[in-house]
Specification:
156 residues, Rossmann fold
């Protein structure tokens, strides 16, 4: 299923992350798309909260990957400054292809091959505090329909 969801403020983006977490069947590779400042890290904050992570989510801008243990393992990547070769050398593909690990990946455009359990979330800024999310459940990783109140108007 594909969704288009309007996000009127930052908190709505956090809630969408929580909704996605609540509907994930198992591990998934979540490709977070959208330019600098689109809200990819903000959405990951909600995702983490929904997965039972208690730690504060920091952007992996310099660490490249942050790993969290909640009800499930969450690995949050920011591949902006690295190449696919760097990722392979670091062994990241083990996480990417592990069906038990939820990967939230910013700048996955750096990779040529994405895992089959793929969820694409594209965030498009429409104003200073507003975003539109376009969600494609390529790998059929979402169980049921995302938060109805947010999504009902625009399920495709
Ligand atoms: N509706 C919204 N959803 C998400 N973020 C919003 C929204 N409105 C305003 N913002 C602001 O936009 C910024 C989003 O920052 P964030 O770090 O999540 O971007 P990013 O996509 O991860 O960028 P980068 O590629 O640089 O890591 C934050 O400063 C946040 O406060
Ligand atoms: Mg970010």
């Amino acid at each position: 299923m594909n969704y288009t969801i309007l996000l009127p403020d930052e908190e709505a983006t956090v809630r969408l992350g929580g909704s996605i977490a609540a509907h994930l069947k198992s591990g998934a590779f979540i490709a977070l798309r959208g330019g600098l400042g689109a809200g990819k890290t903000v959405l990951t904050r909600g995702l983490a909260r929904g997965l039972g992570v208690r730690e504060r989510i920091a952007s992996p801008t310099f660490t490249v990957m942050n790993r969290y243990e909640g009800d499930k393992v969450l690995c949050h990547f920011d591949l902006y400054r690295v190449t696919e070769e760097d990722c392979l050398q670091a062994g990241f593909d083990e996480y990417f292809f592990d069906p038990a690990v939820v990967c939230a990946v910013e700048w996955s455009e750096r990779l040529t091959q994405l895992p089959p359990n793929l969820l694409i979330v594209e965030l498009v800024p429409t104003g200073e505090n507003t975003r539109t999310a376009h969600i494609k459940d390529e790998g059929n990783v979402l169980d049921g329909i995302l938060d109805e109140k947010q999504a009902s108007a625009c399920i495709q």
